[in-house]
Amino acid sequence: MARSPEVRFIVQQGLPEPAPHSCSLQYDALAFQPRVMAVLVAAAAAVREPSVWAALAALLLLGAAAPRLNPFDALHSLLARRLSRRVFLPGARAPRRFAQLLAALFCLTAALGLLTGREAFVRGIVAAFGAAFVGIFAFGFCFGAWLFRLLVPSWKPPQERPARPSTGSVPAPAAARAEGAASPGGWAPHAPRTPAPVDEARASLGGPCRTPPRTPHTSSPSSQPLAGLAGGAELRTPPRTPTKPLPPRRSWRAFRRIAFR
């Protein structure tokens, strides 16, 4: 099944294929930066100032180096909040960041061309920008993302990478796995336990589990007063001495009245 240009552009940026109800919102969020860049490139080509091209290159480099500080995404989030159209846009993946870096290099090259007086070179860069914008808006083709996948074929988006094994599981030794594979019942993770040696001194008493007899406990001097309890005497507690009641609390006014008479 052929993908639409919107879905093709979203997948090229390293994101998973969106659901049908959120495809247009996600495409508008990703295509907002190329739309603004098309207007800015046209204005820079009309002004012909190296500082304008250098400012465009700085904005693109900021978005490529720190995706969370991308000024184009921040502006889109502000406008979407005003229009009550919120869409979750994850951080820029490697293909999108490489495309921003490539556009920044084109802007720097245009600034250097204006400084050196090579107008034809700047016109060629503007024509390259125009072809890239046509590919994005008409066919959903991003040249920068396509070039990144061509240069780094081993890169895969997170949803296509194999799951990592959990760190809590301990792999079995190779010798134990080989021995278990040869056994008919499969690999056994634990080896059979060997019985502990029996103490000869305990075995002479009648068995390995028999404990030696305990010595009788001698009475201590502190337990002598309680010896009469076995004969039926009653333990009486001494009467409590009455404590003096605390004086009533006086207020600050009464204290001043007494102290400063």
How would you characterize this protein structure?
With 261 residues, the protein is mostly helical. It has helices spanning 5-12, 23-47, 50-65, 71-82, 94-116, 119-139, 143-151, 174-182, 200-204, 252-259. It has a domain at 5-156. Helix 5 (94-116) runs antiparallel to helix 6. The radius of gyration is 42 Å and the shape is elongated.
Topology, element by element:
Layout: H1 5-12, H2 23-47, H3 50-65, H4 71-82, H5 94-116, H6 119-139, H7 143-151, H8 174-182, H9 200-204, H10 252-259
Helix pairs in contact: 1-2, 1-6, 2-4, 2-6, 3-5, 5-6, 5-7
How would you sum up this structure in a few lines?
With 261 residues, the protein is an all-alpha fold. It has 10 helices and no strands. It is 52% helix and 0% strand.
Q: What string, H for helix and E for strand, traces the elements in order? A: HHHHHHHHHH
Proportion of residues in β-strands: under 5%
Number of helices: 10
Q: Uncertain regions: pLDDT < 50 for 5+ in a row?
A: 175-188, 225-229
Per DSSP E runs of 2 or more residues, the count of β-strands stands at 0
What kind of sheet is the major sheet?
A: none
Structural class category: mainly alpha
Mean pLDDT equals 76
Distance between termini? 104 Å
Helical percentage = 40-55%
The 3D shape can be described as elongated
Based on CA atoms alone, the radius of gyration comes out at: 42 Å
